User: Fold this.
Amino acid sequence: MSYQLELRHFTYFLAVAEELHFRKAAERLFISQPGLSRQIKQMEGIIGAELFIRNKRNVSLTAAGEYLKKEVAYIFNHIDFTIKQTSLIDKGSEGEVRIGFLGSAIQTVIPDLLVKADKEYPKIQFSLEEMSNYDQVKSIVSDELDIGFVRLARVPDGVCIKVVQTDSFSLVLPKDHLLTKKNFRSVAQVSLEHFILFSSDYSSIYYDKIMSICEDKGFTPIVSHKSVHAQTIFKLVESGLGVAIVPTSLQYGFDLNVKFLEIPKISQKAALSVIWKEDNRNPALEKVKKFLDPDNRQ
Assistant:
């Protein structure tokens, strides 16, 4: 008897690949464990490749299984999005653009993009999700996002990157701190204080820039806390647990007892870039791409 691969085979495979446990995968799929094992064996026979390494204690993916998991997850995600886009278009929409962003992008860049796009293409919908640089790149590559706003110098092959905003850096202090706009001359004035910084997970290049701002003034900051969220950093500063250095644009949108002093006489700038996949086929993205050009956002 000959068999052909069907959609259910890939559904079963992905469940086992994600759970790495046949019983848990079977429960998730609402089928019996022996039945699931037979389906996977049948799939391996049709493909002619072993997908899992099984022993009494563990299940792991082979190299072929790892490759197939990545590709099947990509295909399933694309199918889900295509179905959603089809439904939106049927209801009169021109589709959806999925946007990932770092917190600083929501202050000016994203609102400007949405206003411009809504004016020309009111039937395009947008979904927004705050994400780390790493997660945005991963989601762009896997077609789970259309656009990402990141602080990176390099991206993988096949991903386009364009700087959309260049920002200065500011020192963040508790409101009652002795430093003010009048007497603030250099970050060296807070060299003995504890620093609360964005984690290198937020952006390694961004973290390195902040370190270099301090090192250029003759000191290495004492880093007591790290976070990937601006709100958390500002709250810690407000509580007197240290000072911070952030892009100046982040001073808007928060109502906390902190103050921002733009750092003078430094060469470092905070570059915010937009990324998208070169072969992204979302027609709605094609329509709004022109608003990603800084020259067209004025």
Q: What stands out?
A: The chain has three domains: 7-72, 93-165+272-296, 169-268.
